[in-house]
Design brief:
single chain; about 110 residues; mainly alpha; about 55% helix; about 0% strand; flat; disordered C terminus; binds calcium ion
Length: about 110
Amino acid sequence: MKALLLTATTAAALVAGAAIAQQAPGPAPQPKAERQISQQQFEARQAQRTERMFARLDTNKDGAITKAELDAASKARFEKADANKDGVLSGDELKRGKGMRGHRMHRQPA
Ligand SMILES: [Ca+2]
Ligand SMILES: [Ca+2]
């Protein structure tokens, strides 16, 4: 199989587009005033998120993401979102995935 080299940003965009649910919900949402962040904080979080995503996708840690690594990650996400394991994502399964993804945006950085 032909290797496909991707930049971290490209890989993050591809996976984010195909992302469904992947993690348990975080803590309860905070009051609005506590959720405000500066542009610098936002950009730092985005950079950290991209680095984590790249590290997770680059399973053999060679510094590049192949099509096979990307396909494996997409397959795992699909299978996790497919709660009833019928090979199809229903509207409810997609909604659960979106809800969980939205919840992640409000978590505090580690
Ligand atoms: Ca790799
Ligand atoms: Ca299903």
